[in-house]
Amino acid sequence: MERFYKPQSSSSKAKLIDLNKFPWDPADRIKIMDYHPDQRDEIRRKYLGNGPCQPRGHDFPKKTIGNKERRFIRTWFDKYGNWLEHSVKKDKAFCLCCYLFADHVGNQGGRDGFVEKGFNSWNKTERFSLHIGDINSVHNKSLKKCDDLINQNQSIVTALHKQDDIVKRANRIRLNATINACRFCLKNALSFCGHDESKTSICKGNFLELMDLILFHDQELRQLPKAAGNNQYLSPCIQKDIANCFEEEVLKSIFKEIGDDVFALLVDESSDVSKKEQMAIVLRYVDTHGIVKERFVGVVHVKETSSLALKSAIDTFFAKYGLSFKRLRGQGYDGANNMRGEYNGLKAKILEENSSAYYVHCFAHQLQLVVVTVARKHLGVVNFFDNISILMNVVCSSCKRSTILREEEKEKVEKEIGSGILETGTGLNQELSFIRPGDTRWNSHYKTLTRLVDMFKSINKVLEYVRDECNNNTSSQNQAISMLNFLSSFEFVFYLHLMLIKILGYTDSLSQALQRKDQDILEAVKMVETTKGKLQKFRESGYDRILKKVHLFCGKHDIEILKMDANYVNDRAKRQRYDFTNQHHYKFDCFNTVVDMEIQEFGDHFNEINTELLNNMTAFIPYDSFSKFDATKLTRLCEFYPYDFDNGEKIALAHQLDLYIDNVRKDERFANVKGISDLARVMVEIRKHITFPLVYRLLKLILVLPVATATVERCFSAMKIVKTNLRNRIGKDFLNACVICTVEKEALQSVTNEVVIDRFQKMKSRRGQL
């Protein structure tokens, strides 16, 4: 855990601290009087705004008291919800309001077990009532001070600046307009500030320009009396406060949807534009409608990416929002050692706390490794992609060459439309470009090679232009000559079609499917197995199909077709002639070798799909009238989740499974169910999840297992839109609020202005009353 600075005991020597760095777990807190006097009320508001630390989903440990097993009871949160807290770290109960104000109302009872040391005598439940006491007790006085702090009407500032109803109504109208402008900027990832925000500026920035637009169209807003400068709700501080309100309400809706149910954790790290390491956190869960959701909950700045630093940041985040590692049932990361390390990785550290938090190496990353390994091991494939890289540099290195490529392609399309080869219509014959593939997703090479086939003649025209016209650039001329020879070779055409049809063609559809948010792990495993099966069939009968396409392409573009029974000549080795034939080289040395390498890599990288855990899960698959259903496997599956099924429930599950399978096989509403995701949704729709609660619980445990970290990567894409070179000084808290609101647009849309106004008013003392 992060070590927090403890100020001197004298309040005059206490230092100001970062308001976002104080601890959330009650066991880690220092005395409220040890904070700087200027910050105490702000800290109190922060704690009250977040609410008591109540990890409702935590599996509270048992302790022996008087020869009986005792533990904290979750229902106590409901009974004493406005003050009772629980520290996961120490397994003790605390009182939030007494921590915040007991020192202000006297010492009697102010330093009891609920404030300093914590309470864990779970057999003495009367101590809760004794702590509350009578109307004049320390606890009730502290609770009253908490209410007064939140209630702006009780503040001294309000008393000194009494405002009538007309002024309050005007403040509310202005704040509503500001909230609408902030909502629009957050939703569309727009920057708030401008270079010149003065009244005479014609480019004030998105926020002020939008406020002017709202003022222009809102007659009621224009007719309001002029407000004081600090009551116009336009300052950057107000904008950040409103963004924070939206963020907290969005997160509140997400955590409310999760409740005390199980969930999975997806984490990835990446640096932003200002070279700060950021960790994105996504939670995967099944909502009340039986739909799998992956929701982004925050970007956390970490000073380093070691497993200890990442675990510490996650601990702080979980404590802040009352999440428990005991409800975690899945982990999804990339394959970095700091994430998946067997002994010191983030995966291992979480498994130490919860053995049921099963790790799944991101399927999309594994697929990436499969393709990369093949592309780097086979000499012919390596040479092919090296030449493609050089080709990209020659063709796309200047605006003039790109323009020539577009003009050539445009002329070609016009001729083909005129001759009737191409049809016209909306969305057809769009302008294409020779795109550069990305390094982090090798399936992007698929689009590059597809464009190479479509624009082959135009690309050759550009190379001829460079060869004939660029006399002042000998290097480019030599590269163009080399590329023209490369593109006119039979070997190039063979590898081009081998990559398109096999390595990249088969894996592209799998890659796209793995990046769906609602993809379940059994469907992903099925698709991986299907892809491996297609590769195996392709190895047996695909060579002739490849050769046929190669001959058609060569004939279309006047490329010499090799005689397969002639001896192979290696153009890259000074035309060295070998004893074996072209047929032997292209079929056995190229085709069979590359396909075998990819099949082997699939088996090596996707080795977890053969584990007992996933093997037992397949018994839930609803295909072919639940033909794979096996009650024994599903009963065995619940053994992997000891926190979710006790001995009595395991026995009851066996009986429920027999009734469940007979019921769903006879029910026509399950006839067209396509996967376990649909199965969960249909069960909730027709309320079968109530009839078979244990079966549905087991089904949810399968659904929360993550498949890929694509959602996390989308969040990083949003972060790079929000934090650009022009906005590289944006603070981490404001950045977090902006990214959450930009990604979770649906949740942002459901947050009403009234809720934001209420939270905004309670954040701090404000002169303008609403």
TrEMBL record:
Recall the GO molecular function terms of this protein's record: protein dimerization activity
Chain ranges of the TTF-type domain: 68-162
How is this protein named in the record? TTF-type domain-containing protein
